[in-house]
Design a protein that fits this description.
Layout: E1 3-5, E2 17-19, E3 34-36, E4 61-63, E5 76-82, E6 91-96, E7 101-105, E8 115-116, E9 129-131, E10 140-142, E11 144-145, E12 152-154, E13 162-168, E14 171-175, E15 181-185, E16 189-192, H1 209-213, E17 268-270
Antiparallel strand pairs: 1-2, 3-4, 5-6, 5-8, 6-7, 9-16, 10-13, 10-16, 11-12, 13-14, 14-15, 15-17
Length: 274
């Protein structure tokens, strides 16, 4: 993993920091695992804009990712590490012994030619997926299920990882990337190792146009709006806007919005840090 700082030969490249893409081994995706990805432009089914600052962007195809890792006991070989325009992490193409091909989220340190397997009683090596009941305590894990058979939902973005802290009965204690410590059923699957592309946080866009390529439209600052448009709008001259809050009036900067009577509160041992 490495990043490259470009020479300032244009204004847009002056502060640009790009990914070295050292881990990427091919630029041609597997055609059988591609699906069309239609853009909504932030509009709902009746054509009304429900999400602002969304639209445009480069045309993309979706890569079908195997988040469930339910092909148990069948070894697979890592064919290539690829870039995925739909996510921050890199993805790996697996060739299973029975001839099937699948994409998975690539873990840090995954190499082409490496053998992977998922299921119970497999070796706790990078890229292998197994139930939390089989993972050694203290192991760094990622791509974790919240409910058995649901597929990975947590610790999936670039550089993310969680740690298995303890096991007691049918629950495992896992420290999540947010800092939250939570109980998860030991029958849920997790993958050994941290997610790839940990240098993603070091990248610098360099220019506004790059946000447009990603489908992000310009955003108006709330303090520049009128009172009818936002709680922080209006005022004589350059007013500070008062207390920071959302368009609906909900305070920002640490205000907790989680429901006190939520049924899953009993599984959270320690809340994430403010």
């Amino acid at each position: 993993m490495s990043v490259r700082k470009l020479k300032p030969i244009t204004p847009g490249q002056r502060f640009r920091v790009v990914n070295g893409f050292d881990a990427i081994t091919t630029d041609k995706p597997e055609k059988s695992l591609l699906a069309p990805k239609k853009r909504s432009g932030g509009r709902n089914n009746s054509g009304r804009m429900t999400i602002r600052q969304v639209g445009g962007g480069h045309k993309k195809k979706y890569r079908i990712i195997d988040f469930k890792r339910d092909k148990t006991g069948i070894p697979a070989t890592v064919d290539s590490i690829q870039y995925d325009p739909n996510r921050t992490a890199f993805i790996a193409l697996l060739n299973y012994q029975d001839g099937e091909k699948r994409y998975i989220i690539a873990q840090n340190g995954l190499q082409v030619g490496q053998n992977l397997v998922s299921g119970a009683n497999v070796a706790p090596e990078i890229g292998n997926a197994m139930p939390l009941s089989d993972v050694p305590l203290g192991t760094i894990i990622s791509c974790i299920e919240l409910r058995p058979g649901q597929g990975a939902t947590m610790a999936r973005s670039a550089g993310a990882f969680a740690q298995l802290m303890a096991r007691d009965g049918k629950f495992a204690t896992v420290k999540l990337p947010s800092g939250e410590t939570r109980l998860i059923l030991v029958t849920c699957m997790a993958t050994i190792g941290a997610v790839s592309n940990s240098d993603h946080q070091l990248l610098v866009s360099g220019k506004a146009g790059r946000s447009r390529w990603l489908g992000r439209r310009p955003r108006t600052r709330p303090v520049a709006m009128n009172p009818v448009d936002h709680p922080m709008g209006g005022g004589e001259g350059r007013a500070s806007g008062g207390h920071p809050r959302s368009r609906n009036g909900i305070p920002a900067k640490g205000y907790r919005t989680r429901t006190k009577t939520k049924s899953s509160n009993k599984y959270i041992i320690e809340r994430r840090k403010k």
